[in-house]
Amino acid sequence: MADLTTPLHDAHVAFGARIVPFAGYLMPVQYAGVLAEAKAVREGAGMFDVSHMARLWFRGERVLEFLEWITTNDVAALADGRGQYSLLPNATGGVVDDIIVYRVAEGAFRMVVNAANHAKDVAWISSQNRFHVTVTDDTDATVMIAVQGPDATGVLAKGATDGQALREAPTFGIVETDIHGVPCFCMRSGYTGEDGYELVCAAERGIELWNALAAAGVVSCGLGARDLLRVEAGLPLYGHELNDDVNPISAGLGWVVGKEKAFIGCGPINEARTNGTPTKLQGVRLEGKRLPQPGMRVFVDGREVGVITSGVYSPILEAGIAFAFIASDVKLGTPATVEIRGKHEPATIVSKRFWKRAY
Amino acid sequence: MNNPPDLKYTKSHEWVRLEGDVATIGITDHAQSELGDIVFIDMPEVGRALQAEESFGTVESVKTVSDLYAPIAGEVIAVNEALGARSELVNTAPFGEGWLVKVRVSNPADVDALLDADAYTVIAEA
Fold first, then answer.
1. Which of A30, A80, A170, A357 has the most beta carbons within 10 angstroms of its beta carbon?
2. ipTM for the predicted complex
3. Chain A interface, mutation test: which of B30, B33, B35, B37, most A Cβ atoms within 10 Å?
């Protein structure tokens, strides 16, 4: 299958992006450089084309019942105009995908899912739909731009008809407003650990919005910076930290699993919560600047305790950092080594939230 | 990409500057651009004997890890210590301050067999 492009593709080329295939799309991996872009997001405001991620609508009388059954988080707790990070579990306690669910109004929800799982999720959701819920896919008709960083909300608010609503919305809140004249569905969420919004607008207005944001000082950022920022912030990536066989409890996602509800796979997930899992997703911080990569093995006192699932160089910590599923008896703070091309590089097992924003 | 005409090049994107029997080796502007921000360079020990085309270290960037290959046979007589703290010099000055190693070449004539700037430019832009 030929790679798809997002409606913003021409803007990426015009902005000098390096384009790579990702999840079936040709996507910008970097513009000026990964480190400069990551710095822009940590210190100002950066934007990412995330149009490849799929956007679904769920509508129907029994939509709440349906979403409670197919997702792990407590959907009933959502008020209108609020969203939550969640998972689509499978029957064996693994993860079909990690997602965000937004309650737009009674009987109308949005879901954002990973690009790589788009077709799989749609088929899975359809196979579980005994609730007469209408699921529609507006991915191709829209673009999604994530604007992230300590200045993101302020910059968006300046260009918005209802800037005050943007400034006042809670995390995972929804605001509908025009931004630089473009009607936007704005969700206060992201994948960088920073404040900011994910904006959805009509596909044909996407480049206009992108260019207006660039003119307002928002720095164009690619997938390279996005990966670095999400690892620093302790956020998992499907296919690395999550897959059909990973129990969410093992991945440290018990906080997105409702305790008082029935859902697909709740048996094995609740069992894991009660009895623990053999491994847990942890952070691994190298002493030096080497780049840890998926598949590299982690050792404590000569014993192999885990395998790395994602690794980046962290400019904030000036060190290689990684996620790894580590044997559950290994405590945080334990000195370890990572085997990098035959050499054991010193490291420490740490919390996977390497970095937390201070505002 | 501007590849200096006084240097010799390899298909694996290293450059060589021969002065007497000492070859300074680095990676090209094209190579650093493809790698992105470089954060770590695994260098050989001084004194190590290298065979031509032998892997003598790695360059690690925020995106990827790439092997370094010896363009010619020789003994490592110096490594660029400045890169330990400032690996970004390979990005900013690949043909200058960002050099990697100096090698006393076994046979200076080997260098003649490497690519000239024009031939390398064709490869790099392919």
1. A30
2. 0.77
3. B37
Could you tell me if residue A31 is left (phi over 0), alpha (psi between -120 and 50 degrees) or otherwise beta? alpha
Q: How many domains does chain A have?
A: 3
Contact B65 A34 (CB under 8 A): no
Do B40 and A35 make contact, defined as CB atoms within 8 angstroms?
Answer: no
Mutation to test the B interface, candidates A227, A291, A293, most B Cβ within 10 Å: A291
Beta-strand relationship, A142-148 and A46-49 = antiparallel
Is residue A222 domain-shared with residue A145, that is, in the same domain? yes
pLDDT in tens, A111-140: 999 999 999 999 999 999 999 999 999 999
Min CA distance, B109 vs chain A (Å)? 33
Residue A320's beta-bridge partner residues? A313
Beta strands at A219-221 and A46-49: parallel, antiparallel or unpaired: parallel
How far apart, in whole angstroms, are the C-alpha atoms of residue A26 and residue A161?
33
Q: What is the DSSP string of A66-79?
A: HHHHH-SS-GGGPP
Give yes or no for A29 touching B (CB within 8 A).
Answer: yes
Residue B51 belongs to domain with CATH number: 2.40.50.100
Mutate to test the interface with B, among A293, A313, A316, A344 (most CBs of B within 10 A): A313
| Whole-structure pTM value | 0.92
Of A228, A288, A341, the CB nearest to B62: A228
Cα A192 from Cα A230, distance rounded (Å):
5
Same domain membership, residue A188 and residue A132: no
Residue B1 in this model has a pLDDT that exceeds 70: no
Please give the full DSSP string across A226-248, using - where no structure is assigned.
HHHHHHHTT---BTTTB-TT--T
CB contact under 8 A, B37 and A33: yes
Residue-number span of the structural domain to which A195 is assigned: 9-50+140-232
